[in-house]
Structure formats: C-alpha cells, structure tokens
Amino acid sequence: MKKMKRNILMLMAGILAVAITGGEVKAQSGTVKLNLYYNYGLPTGSFKSDVISNGSPRGGGADILYNIDPTWAAGLSVAFQDFYQKYPRAVYNTGKNEQISAVLSNSVQSTPILAKVVFNPLGRQRSVVQPYVSAGVGFSMISDKQYLGQFESSDASVAFASQIGAGVQVPFGKLSNSGLLLGANYNLVPYSKNDLSNLNSIDFRVGVYLPLR
C-alpha cells in the first residue's frame, strides 16, 4: 500500500510538473482557473448490485487548473461523494447456525484527490460552447461503514483512483473568462474491503469556472 501511494504521488507530481514547465514557455499568457461544482453520483457494477443502488445527491468538488495553452490545462482535483442506503428489515446470517432479524444500512464516503489533465479542442476559438475531455489519476480516501441492527463494522483506508470525463463549458459572455460548467465522469476505484471489489461510479456535475489570475 505504501509503495502504491508513493507511485501515485510521484505520478501526480509529474503531471503537475509538466503543467508548470509547459506554462514557462508562455508565462505571460498562462492563467489559473478554479472549477467549483455540485456532483450527483450513481454507483455502478458490483458497488450498485451488492452495496448501494441509490444515487447520491450529496457531492461536490473543486479543480485548480493551470492553462498550459488554449487547449490544454493541468492541475489538482479534490471532490467528495456520500453514498448511503438503508434496507428493510430482513433475516441475515451472522455465523454458523446464527441469524439476526435487523435493518441493514450501508454508508460509503469517498474523497478522491487526483492529478488532472483537461483538453479543450476548441480552446483557440471564441466558441459559445467549449467541449472538453479530461482524465485524472490519484487516490481516494474511503470511509466504509455497515450497520446491521446495533452491530457496526467499519473501515477507513486509501485506494487507487482514476477518472475520465467529458462535458462542456459555456462562457457567461463572448469575452468572459468565467462561465457555466456541465459534465459527467466515470470513476474507477478498486476496493477490496468488507467483501467489496470496487467502488466505481458515474457522477454528473454542474458548476462554474472562474479565473484566479
């Protein structure tokens, strides 16, 4: 685990170094922007079928991106998503020849911290709508809790995380450097705790982007 964390941090540092180095070529034209957004998350795969099937309206995040040139940007992304579901009372096996009638609740909070790269194919044009694609890699801090009646099991750990996304940016005005952000991401989070195999999800986001300098 420590080796994986070290490799992830080295990769994140490398991506950020590329952003800074690329910006030195056009230091006068380089800008930094802030993305702030609300997330709605949907579990997928075994995360949805085995743990939580409900969507989560409790999410959000922020990106700080350095514009290397009009089409490429790189930086850091931090987000949060809170998944929760309570199942009706049922009978569960708790051991050999042991059963319990109880309400089952699953709670998973994920905080991904990613090095992120964004490509805007129309970045050199003053288009009303600016499509983008993005990719990120890093780690996610996971809090996983399960309540079976009065009994609780929990785990807190760090897992590898990656992300791909796409969306559009809509400037508030023709010459504006701020605007509306709409997009969707697929989040890949391998996670093998408490009989889970992954915490993969799709999130839909709406927010704003603002220039910092």
Structure description:
InterPro entries: Beta-barrel_OMP, OMP/PagP_B-barrel. This protein is mainly β and 213 residues long. It has a single domain (2-211), classed as Porin (Beta Barrel). Helix content is 15%, strand content 61%. The protein has helices at 2-25, 45-51, and strands at 31-43, 59-67, 72-95, 98-119, 130-148, 151-171, 179-188, 201-211. A hairpin with a 2-residue loop joins β5 and β6 (151-171). The chain is elongated and about 70 Å long. It starts with a helix and ends with a strand. The model is unreliable at 15-28 (pLDDT under 50).
Write down the overall geometry. elongated
What top-tier CATH class fits best?
Mainly Beta
**The CATH architecture:** Beta Barrel
What count of structural domains?
A: 1
Tell me, rounded to a whole number, the average pLDDT: 84
Structural class: mainly beta
- Strand percentage lies at over 45%
Proportion in helices: 10-25%
State the order of secondary-structure elements, H for helix, E for strand: HEHEEEEEEE
CATH structural fold name: Porin
Note the gap between the termini: 38 Å
Cross-sheet strand order for the largest sheet:
1-2-3-4-5-6-7-8
Helical run tally:
2
Radius of gyration: 20 Å
| Strands, total number | 8
Uncertain parts:
15-28
Largest sheet: 8 strands, antiparallel, barrel
